[in-house]
Write a structure and sequence with these properties.
Blueprint lengths: L1 H19 L9 E6 L7 E4 L5 E4 L7 H10 L4 E6 L5 H4 L2 H7 L1 E8 L8 H10 E7 L9 E3 L2 E7 L16 E6 L2 E5 L5 H8 L13 E3 L11 H7 L3 E4 L12 H9 L3 E4 L6 E6 L8 E3 L2
Parallel strand pairs: 3-4, 4-5, 5-6, 10-11, 11-12, 12-13
Antiparallel strand pairs: 1-2, 1-14, 2-3, 7-8, 8-9, 9-10, 14-15
């Protein structure tokens, strides 16, 4: 009988250990994958407390690259998905993603009436458990705490029409883990950069970041010299591919970043993704990941 109780106790202990390993506590480390979806955006964050944050989904035709990275990273569910705006090179993979993975909350720009059509709004509604429409700026205590990181939405603060360049409806994100900041510009152009640099704005102090996801796939209608100087990134990621667009990324933008001391990475080449890791005190150099 004593042997039976000992066996039962051992089984309960094993079950408790197994359960605790699946509780979502995470490793205390942040991992970022810049998925190589060509000239399109798709960034996967594995957050320190075990949650997942995906920023954009790439193109419909490049979903297999995102799927491969999700499998490589052992992702079972998308806890948070930010869609910066509704252009196909940012939202294109959503339908396929939603068929394969449960999605918790999708975040979009409440001001953006230009880049989404009715079918895309319906897809968003059906794809997730909760759809949250964000009205930037949300920063500081108004920002979000997600899985051990802080997330601010810096821009835009109003709608932008086609005539003004509807790329400026892109949500601009600032993610902070400990002492390490990530600034993600989506497809925001110099128009938004100038707003963030305005002397009357309180945003300037929020611009410095170790990691910059460069706006507009590295094209010349973003990345003002003054903006790069204000961010002063150690590492910069450009979601461009000159085989698809000879101006993306622009040689001038690449030179500007390198002159500022940033190590640059892009979606050119046969790699599956670029991977960065942070313990909250520092950010590792990017590592190219191959299938």
């Amino acid at each position: 009988m004593r042997r039976f109780y000992r066996m039962m106790l051992l089984m309960l202990l094993c079950a408790a250990l197994l359960f605790s390993g699946c509780s979502g506590e995470g490793s205390g480390q942040l991992t970022l994958y810049g998925v190589n979806t060509g000239k399109s955006d798709c960034l996967l964050f594995l957050l320190p407390k075990g949650e997942t944050l995906l920023v954009d989904t790439g193109l419909k035709d490049t979903y297999d690259r995102l799927e491969a990275v999700l499998e490589l990273a052992g992702v079972k569910e998308i806890d948070h998905l930010v869609i910066t705006h509704g252009h196909k090179d940012h939202i294109g993979g959503l339908k396929k993603l939603a068929k394969d993975y449960a999605i918790g909350t999708i975040y979009t720009n409440a001001y953006d009436t230009a880049t989404y059509n009715d079918a895309e709004r319906e897809t968003i509604l059906e794809a997730c458990r909760q759809w949250r429409q964000i009205s930037p700026p949300l920063r500081g205590t108004d920002g979000l705490e997600l899985g051990g990181v802080h997330l601010d939405f810096l821009a835009p603060d109003r709608p932008y029409s086609d005539e003004e360049d509807d790329n400026n409806n892109s949500l601009v994100l600032r993610l902070v883990y400990g002492e390490v900041a990530f600034l993600l510009m989506g497809d925001a152009t110099t128009v938004i950069e100038e707003v963030l640099l305005s002397p009357g704005e309180e945003m300037t102090s929020l611009l410095p970041a170790a990691f910059l996801k460069v706006g507009r796939h590295g094209k010349e209608d973003a990345s003002l010299p003054a903006f790069i100087a204000a961010v002063h990134p150690a590492q910069a990621y450009l979601t461009g591919n000159r085989e698809e667009d000879e101006d993306s990324p622009s040689p001038a933008v690449l030179a500007r970043l390198e002159e500022a001391g940033a190590q640059t990475y892009s979606n050119e080449g046969e790699h599956l993704a670029v991977r960065w890791q942070s313990d909250g005190a520092s950010l590792s150099p990017g590592e190219y990941v191959y299938e």
